[in-house]
Design brief:
mainly alpha
């Protein structure tokens, strides 16, 4: 049980750290967007790199923060009926949902993400645009995000099993 607590604390800490670091990407996006607006509207000198750079940064931010969002319960959920159930019933529903939906999705995303990243690195893939930034770092984010999400999902899954069996939250601090 001690190893399980260490695992949960470690995974939570990693996803919290990644979320804290990558939250700053939003500030970078804001600066880039404001810079592009000033360049385009006031100086009549639009850039060719701004839109695509912002798109890539947002994609990386969106993907890599998935584990952080799961840690804090920020993913979309329909709780109208779910909240009427007891804590143990909710835990059982979560366990079933993780087995049917979460884990298969993440395994597929991880497997295909590794494949896409490997192919992209092998060809030094770039964008089709005039700016043509490299795509391989962005495609590497897919398996990294899937891995972080899978680790966080497993930590939560273990906590839900403990809750369903024992009827109490697993304390890991």
């Amino acid at each position: 049980m001690k190893l399980i607590r260490i695992y949960i604390k470690l995974v939570n800490g990693i996803n919290q750290w990644v979320g804290n670091i990558f939250s700053w990407v939003v500030a970078v996006l804001m600066v880039l967007t404001v810079t592009e607006i000033i360049m385009r509207r006031f100086l009549n000198a639009p850039t060719i790199w701004s839109f695509e750079t912002c798109t890539h940064l947002y994609g990386a931010h969106f993907m890599i923060a998935a584990g952080f969002a799961l840690l804090h319960g920020s993913h979309v959920a329909v709780d109208i009926i779910y909240n009427t159930f007891s804590v143990k019933k909710r835990a059982v529903i979560d366990i079933i949902s993780y087995i049917i939906f979460f884990f298969p999705f993440n395994v597929v995303m991880l497997a295909y993400g590794i494949k896409f990243a490997r192919m992209s690195w092998a060809t030094w893939e770039t964008s089709w645009s005039v700016f043509a930034p490299p795509i391989y770092p962005l495609k590497t984010v897919i398996p990294v995000a899937a891995g972080l999400l899978l680790l966080q999902g497993l930590a939560i899954f273990i906590q839900k099993i403990h809750l369903a069996v024992k009827g109490e939250e697993l304390v890991y601090d």
